[in-house]
Write a structure and sequence with these properties.
- Keywords: Isomerase, Pyruvate.
- InterPro entries: HyI-like (IPR026040), Sugar_Epim/Isomerase (IPR050417), Xyl_isomerase-like_sf (IPR036237), Xyl_isomerase-like_TIM-brl (IPR013022).
- It is an enzyme of class 5 (isomerase).
- One of its GO terms (molecular function) is hydroxypyruvate isomerase activity.
- It is a single chain.
- By secondary structure, this protein is of the alpha/beta class.
- The radius of gyration is 18 Å and the shape is globular.
- Strands 1-2-3-4-5-6-7-8 form an eight-stranded parallel β-barrel, surrounded by five helices.
- The mean pLDDT is 97.
- The protein is 38% helix and 14% strand.
- The longest helix is centred in the middle third of the chain and has 22 residues.
- It has one domain: TIM Barrel, CATH 3.20.20.
- It binds ligand LASSHYVV and magnesium ion.
- The site of magnesium ion has 4 residues, from loops.
Length: 264
């Protein structure tokens, strides 16, 4: 059976890092990508980013809400932090402003690490209340919010542990505005049984990201059975974007061979 062509987008925080940020857009287009995503657009003016996208003929698929610097308490987002509500709201407003200016379909609202001394119930209640507030703002901006569960090995204390939790929050606050970002890397590390795990939350899934554990390199370098995963996505009619959020094992271009059989 011939596989249909999937739509892969390049995560420019992870791919083409051999180049300065501004040069990654043309490199992604030259490698055959039609879309890009990256966590943080905030160091650049929206007009500058729009020009880079237009010149390269690329679609901006996704950005994240602002996160703090590596090592800070906000490095994995602010959504579950009881004492950072004003900062969280400012970040959502900023994210919506950029998503709108860049025509990005998705704003990933990054969940955050539960602070020491804060109970899980308290952090989770704050998380749900914050996502509910953000959903109201996103509704009027016409941007879809995404929620992602992260694995406990890389992000201990991350507020969302499982795909089902992410789907439950999306459902509770309004699935017409909020969906699940299903990242195969995180899902494999903590949950496994990937096809069943995906199917359980499929009605809420709006975007996919891929990387192969344990090293988070490109598909084919690790433990996931990608031919079965892609065959399942094809058989079940997945037609959304698939974000390549992996660290190339050597160079970005040398590591793109895996994509050929899924794009032609
Ligand atoms: O780490 C991931 O996985 C992501 O999708 C990041 O954008 C979240 O910080
Ligand atoms: Mg991810």
């Amino acid at each position: 059976m011939t596989e249909p062509a999937f739509r892969f987008d390049a995560n420019l925080k992870w791919l083409f890092t051999e180049l300065p940020f501004e040069e990654r857009f043309d490199a992604a287009a030259a490698a055959g990508f039609e879309g890009v995503e990256y966590a943080s657009p905030y160091d650049h003016e929206p007009a500058v980013l729009s020009k880079l996208l237009t010149d390269a003929g690329l679609t901006q698929v996704l950005i994240n809400t602002p996160m703090g610097p590596p090592g800070s308490a906000t490095r994995s987002g602010l959504a579950c932090l009881p004492d950072a509500v004003a900062e969280f709201r400012d970040g959502v407003e900023r994210g919506l402003e950029y998503a709108t200016a860049l025509n990005a379909a998705f704003l990933h609202v990054v969940g955050g690490l539960r602070p020491e001394g804060v109970s899980r119930d308290r952090a989770f209640a704050r998380y749900v209340a914050n996502i509910g507030w953000a959903a109201e703002r996103a509704r009027s901006a016409g941007v879809r919010l995404l929620l992602e569960a992260q694995n406990k090995r890389d992000a201990p204390r991350f507020i969302l542990d499982t795909q089902e939790q992410a789907a439950a929050v999306a459902e509770a606050v309004g699935a017409e505005t909020v969906g699940v970002l299903f990242d195969f890397y995180h899902a494999q590390i903590d949950e496994g049984d990937l096809i069943t795990t995906l199917d359980r939350v499929r009605p809420w899934v709006s975007h996919l990201q891929i990387a192969d554990p344990p090293s988070r390199h490109e598909p084919g370098t690790g433990e996931i059975g990608w031919p079965a995963i892609f065959a399942h996505l094809a058989a079940t009619g997945y037609d959304g974007w698939i974000g390549c959020e992996y660290a190339p094992a050597t160079t970005t271009v040398a590591g793109l061979g895996w994509m050929k059989e899924y794009t032609s």
